[in-house]
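Technical annex, item 7. During the second reporting period the consortium partners agreed on a shared format for inverse folding records so that results from different sites could be compared directly. Each record opens with the tokenized structure and is followed by the designed sequence. A conforming record, contributed by the partner at site C, is shown below for reference.
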């Protein structure tokens, strides 16, 4: 293969290089921009990669996530982990409740980590809601002052207000979900303890009957 590359005529190599050349197209300030090199300011934007020879799209790159979007993804992942932990806890308590736990205190400790995680998630969500609300109030106040002064509200300011409002609604929803999880967890703990007591009582009652039969 090396020998073939060395013997490849210069025009053929130029054609191959041209065939591999790509164009980058992205939206910037409401306009479609295309170039054969990607400037630094466009590196985080969504873009299409197009073959310069065929004009066909060969790839697509999504825009970089904002810090708020990364935080939302992290919270969503935490929610999935909490759900997985809930399922695992239910499975464990049903399969090995009597064998594993000598008394109710040991059983309660199984739930302690989940309780801590949910309560921490609630506190984080409350902090985010308060911070986003404060920022939104500031943006709305700025827009109101401009309108009262007879000045137009800049498009960037209006876009920031819409974005902040959407983020606030999302984090309020997360907070309500975490609070529902916490309330449901109390019910789950009590139901599990009742189940444990019933199993324990049944085992205790079965022991004398087995001994009498022997």
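Designed sequence (site C submission):
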């Amino acid at each position: 293969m090396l020998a073939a590359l060395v013997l490849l005529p210069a025009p053929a190599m130029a054609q191959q290089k041209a065939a591999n050349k790509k164009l980058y197209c992205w939206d910037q300030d409401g306009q479609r921009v295309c170039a054969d090199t990607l400037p630094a300011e466009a590196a985080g934007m969504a873009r299409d990669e197009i073959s310069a020879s065929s004009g066909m799209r060969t790839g697509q790159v999504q825009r970089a996530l904002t810090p708020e979007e990364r935080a939302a993804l992290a919270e969503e992942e935490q929610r999935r982990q909490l759900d997985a932990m809930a399922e695992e806890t239910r499975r464990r308590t049903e399969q090995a409740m009597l064998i594993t736990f000598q008394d109710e205190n040991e059983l309660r400790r199984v739930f302690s980590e989940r309780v801590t995680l949910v309560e921490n998630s609630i506190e984080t969500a409350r902090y985010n809601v308060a911070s986003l609300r404060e920022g939104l109030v500031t943006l709305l106040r700025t827009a109101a002052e401009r309108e009262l002064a007879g000045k137009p509200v800049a498009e960037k300011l209006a876009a920031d207000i819409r974005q902040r409002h959407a983020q606030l609604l999302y984090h309020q929803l997360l907070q309500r979900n975490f609070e529902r999880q916490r309330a449901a967890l109390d019910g789950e703990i009590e139901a599990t303890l009742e189940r444990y007591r019933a199993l324990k009582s049944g085992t205790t009652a079965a022991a004398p009957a087995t001994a009498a039969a022997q």
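The first strand starts at residue 22 and ends at 28. DSSP finds five helices and four strands in the chain. All partners now use this format for quarterly exchanges.
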